[in-house]
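User: tokens in, sequence out, please.
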């Protein structure tokens, strides 16, 4: 663990961390052991502190979180609460008092993806045979300090694989390695985390672990927070990670890309009995020394000013985000907007079906001109939200998607969605999830990109084991077909085991 920390805790000087507070750490809560879904998990506030599900670390389901350090397994220190030998791994005492203990975690995911006409070009189908293996250890030293480490392996085989990224195939990567401390100051929880870590303190469409990838999205640096009962503030300064495909030696801190800022949170008064609503303003800065728009590469500094309103109000679940993006790309100004509105309504009891829709506006234009740049950009959002095969992203995009989620049998949840997609600016391109343009779309007329029909099925065998299937048909519209692109089908299935 010491050698892993030494190699990866290098994005910010340690002295800056020590000036924030004396160390301390405490596990929080989490998200279900499955891929990201289109609607946030229901909010679950805690009575005497800031609601853990709204603190920017994800939501818990059956004790599990996508970010494994956000799980709280202290109950497993009591032998009476353990059901099987795996439970024992969640609390391994290292001293006689039990103040020092180790929590182990792991995941095995086996997955197959099949895509016809990959990249929307007429060609042979692509098949990806994928495996993910993750091992983690969370060392707790007293109630106020912890050290967390996580390594991962990503395997990839198949046919017509194209260029392989380090997020899909990686022999071994230090996925996370950090130290964390907290303390109570004037009745508030004050904490700091330093090292390589996941960061999701924001709308899922803007900040995400990107669990769809084999290797998750992680950053390097410092996050600090102050949390009271009804308000909170988080500040952070990170550099991104560039992944190779071999061992740990080719995964490095990317000095050319930096993400920093502040996110705030307020627990809103309940508008109806049992309502759990949160308002999160945010002010961020994203710097990329090698950003590319319209074939031009230049230094981009993008500023985000926005707010996120989300949570539950009776049968209604909503997730609304508005943000303006300013700054500069080379010697050009940036002036862009995103309005991302998702909502569902539960019919009947708590297990009843949900109907809803999402409407999204992401401004576009300017990549191929000389004036201001109006193309919006998500820093590192949920990249399967608009297309399972990663064909669309909230840049120069207008999308409307009605959807329904229901459980035909116990433990099985189905979601069906039909998305209509247009581009905002007809003089700019259609953009993939990785930010690259569909070449040629910038020179053809029209706004209609196409339609996307999607179906997802999740069967929860147990809290540790889940089965997921996805199908998508992307019907290319006039903008894509005029540029030489075509329809595509995507089919995926996987099994995930976590402990």
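Assistant: Sequence out:
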């Amino acid at each position: 663990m010491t050698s892993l920390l030494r190699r990866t805790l290098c994005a910010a000087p340690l002295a800056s961390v020590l000036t924030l507070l004396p160390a301390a750490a405490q596990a929080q809560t989490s998200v279900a052991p499955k891929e990201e879904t289109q609607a946030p998990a229901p909010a679950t506030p805690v009575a005497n502190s800031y609601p853990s599900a709204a603190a920017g670390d994800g939501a818990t389901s059956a004790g599990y979180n996508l970010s494994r350090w956000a799980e709280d397994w202290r109950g497993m220190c009591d032998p009476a609460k353990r059901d099987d030998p795996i439970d024992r791994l969640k609390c391994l005492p290292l001293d006689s008092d039990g103040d020092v203990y180790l929590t182990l975690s792991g995941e095995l995911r086996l997955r197959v993806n099949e895509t016809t006409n990959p990249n929307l070009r007429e060609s042979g189908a692509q098949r990806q045979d994928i495996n993910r293996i993750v091992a983690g250890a969370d060392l707790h030293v007293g109630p106020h300090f912890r050290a967390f480490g996580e390594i991962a392996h990503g395997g990839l085989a198949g046919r017509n694989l194209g260029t392989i990224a380090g997020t899909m195939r990686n022999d071994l990567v230090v996925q996370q390695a950090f130290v964390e401390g907290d303390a109570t100051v004037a009745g508030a929880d004050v904490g700091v985390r330093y090292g390589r870590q996941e960061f999701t303190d924001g709308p899922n469409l803007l900040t995400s672990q990107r669990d769809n990838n084999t290797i998750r999205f992680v950053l390097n640096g410092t996050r600090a927070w102050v949390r009271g009962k009804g308000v909170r503030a988080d500040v952070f300064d990170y550099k991104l990670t560039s992944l190779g495909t071999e061992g740990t030696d080719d995964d490095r801190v990317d000095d050319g890309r930096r993400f920093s800022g502040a996110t705030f949170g307020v627990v809103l008064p309940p508008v109806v009995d049992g309502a759990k609503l949160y308002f999160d303003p945010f002010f961020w800065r994203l710097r990329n020394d090698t950003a590319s728009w319209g074939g031009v590469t230049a230094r981009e500094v993008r500023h985000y000013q926005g707010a996120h309103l989300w949570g539950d109000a009776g049968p209604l679940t909503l997730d609304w985000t508005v943000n303006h993006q300013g700054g500069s790309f080379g010697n050009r100004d940036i002036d862009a907007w995103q309005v991302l509105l998702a909502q569902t309504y539960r019919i009947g009891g708590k297990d009843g079906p949900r109907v809803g829709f999402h409407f999204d506006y992401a401004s576009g234009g300017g990549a191929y001109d000389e004036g201001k740049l109006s193309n919006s950009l998500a820093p590192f959002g949920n990249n399967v939200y608009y297309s399972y095969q990663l064909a669309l992203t909230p840049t120069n995009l207008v999308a409307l998607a009605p959807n329904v989620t229901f459980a035909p049998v116990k433990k099985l949840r189905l979601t069906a969605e039909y998305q209509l997609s247009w581009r905002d600016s007809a003089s700019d391109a259609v953009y993939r999830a990785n930010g690259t343009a569909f070449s040629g779309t910038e020179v053809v007329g029209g706004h209609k990109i196409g339609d996307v029909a999607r179906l997802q099925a999740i069967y929860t065998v147990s809290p540790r084991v889940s089965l997921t299937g996805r199908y998508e048909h992307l019907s290319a519209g006039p903008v894509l077909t005029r540029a030489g692109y075509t329809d595509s089908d995507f089919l995926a299935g996987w099994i995930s085991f976590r402990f």
